[in-house]
Amino acid sequence: MAHAMLVSLSLLLLSFPSIHALSSCGGSCGTLNDCQGQLICINGRCNDDPDVGTHICSGSGGGGGGGGGSCNPSGSLTCGGQTTPTYTCSPPVTSSTQALLTNNDFSAGGDGGGPSECDGSYHSNSERIVALSTGWYAGGSRCGKMIRITAQNGRSTTAKVVDECDSVHGCDSEHAFQGPCRNNIVDASNAVWATLGLNTDDGVVPITWTMA
Fold first, then answer.
1. CA-CA-CA-CA dihedral for 174, 106, 15, 148, to nearest 10
2. Beta-carbon neighbour count of residue 28 at 10 Å?
3. Which has the higher per-residue pLDDT, 11 or 1?
4. Which residues contact 163 (CB under 8 A, 6 or more apart)?
5. Quick check: 137 pLDDT over 60?
6. Burial status of residue 118 (CB atoms within 10 A of its CB: 0-12, 13-18, 19 or more)
């Protein structure tokens, strides 16, 4: 199981406030960063972003059928004294899916814990590979498929899905004793970060992705 490396709470709050934003549809909020996933704060409540065109809160797509529905926490898990929400879903995948890029060591003995879910193997950090949050991993249906990741600096790269960034379970040896992933994580190898021209010391970086 892959998991993002641990970054201090204070650093995350300073550098990327929305990482700890947990308000879901209809939840109270004070700033744009108080809402989870692709939601934004409108009149003090988290709602769909009209600029992105999400239908996470509306639950129906008007005439299109099968509109987004909601992606609320399914529960919570306390690990090392910190309680983290758990998710069985992720935001809808679009042509420009908003996500958080984290860094993972997919090799044996790395911070990812056990071997990759897709093939039961460890991988070299020189490979352009990723783990996706549980909802996006979709029970392994994206295993072996390529995604395209675009950084805010304009650079993009493709990477192969080899693992799940578990948004439901954690706090054990299989998960390197880390808590569950958020529901909007693309957990990438050093090679992905390098190709995008990003510094792994930043820990968490906003990106967009889509299927390649």
1. -120
2. 11
3. 1
4. 1, 2, 104, 106, 112, 116, 117, 118, 129, 130, 131, 132, 137, 187
5. yes
6. buried
Paired tokens of 139:
């029970």
- Answer yes or no: is pLDDT of 109 > 50: yes
Q: What percentage of the chain's residues is helix, strand, coil (to nearest 5)? A: 15, 30, 55
Tokens of 200: 């792994």
* Contacting residues for 91 by C-beta, under 8 A, at least 6 apart: 37, 38, 54, 56, 71, 97, 98, 135, 183, 184
Report the distance separating Cα 103 and Cα 112, nearest Å. 9
- Decide the pairing of beta strands 129-133 and 156-165: parallel
